[in-house]
Hints:
With 148 residues, the chain is mainly alpha-helical. The protein contains seven helices and two strands. It has a domain at 4-74 and 83-98: Orthogonal Bundle (434 Repressor (Amino-terminal Domain)).
Amino acid sequence: MASSVDVHVGRRIRLLRGLRKFSQEKLAKALGITFQQVQKYERGTNRIGAGRLYEMAKILGVPVGFFFDELDSFTLPLEVGLQEEQAPFQKGEASKTSDVSLKAKEGSEIELLMMPETLELAKAYYSIKDERHRQKLLDFIRDIARSP
Length: 148
């Protein structure tokens, strides 16, 4: 049965596939699977095995840990029923993540990154050569976002 981690990994696959401008068909062909299987991975309805995730990371040009970024921490049950805190895959403070907070985080940051206009906005922003103009634009956007 798929879990919230599977959904998170699927969203990271979809994000990266979009950034690399790979269709589901192109990624599927490179992996030797059907595009429907890629869809199931991206939705988190099917779990992706370690070997397949490794191959996907090679094809998309990222370390395997990329798929687990933004998972602040995770726990593994020990045989005695206790839980051991594990180090996160990214830099920064580790904090406990419940399924609810994971879903809220995925529903905001990752979904925003997957929107076509996000990439277009980032490209346009970084095409501005003058750093002062970029900073003024960023300040302007933040001001607008804060206003009712």
